[in-house]
Amino acid sequence: MESNFVWIDLSTFDVQKATDFYRDVLGWSYATDGSGYTQCEVNGAPCAGLYEMPDFFQKIRMPSFWMTYVSVSDVE
């Protein structure tokens, strides 16, 4: 069975701090459409997304987290 990581999202308390960090460390650039979701890019190609952690997660003090998405050829 073949599987591949196809996308990653960072749920974070501070999107500006995260974008500054990943710009400095990985050279990422960013695109936003005003929806609150920030697309991260490397050499103009999308590579990840960032968004502000939902209120409920903030209230329960959940730490920032990366969510990965995997494509599989067969779920079973």
Uncertain segments are none
Record field, number of beta strands: 5
Return the string of H and E elements. Answer: EHEEEHE
What's the helical proportion of residues? 10-25%
Distinct helical segment count = 2
Strand order of the largest sheet: 2-3-4-1-5
For the termini, the CA-CA separation is 10 Å
Q: What's the pLDDT, averaged over the residues?
A: 94
Strand-residue fraction?
Answer: over 45%
Radius of gyration: 14 Å
Describe this structure in words.
This protein has a five-stranded mixed sheet with strand order 2-3-4-1-5, with helices on one face. It contains two helices and five strands; from the N terminus they run E-H-E-E-E-H-E. The protein has helices spanning 15-26, 55-59, and strands spanning 3-12, 29-32, 37-42, 45-52, 65-72. With 76 residues, the protein is of the alpha+beta class. 22% of the residues lie in helices and 47% in strands.
In short:
The protein is of the alpha+beta class.
Features:
globular, 76 residues, 47% strand, single chain
SSE blueprint:
Blueprint: E1 3-12, H1 15-26, E2 29-32, E3 37-42, E4 45-52, H2 55-59, E5 65-72
Parallel strand pairs: 1-4
Antiparallel strand pairs: 1-5, 2-3, 3-4
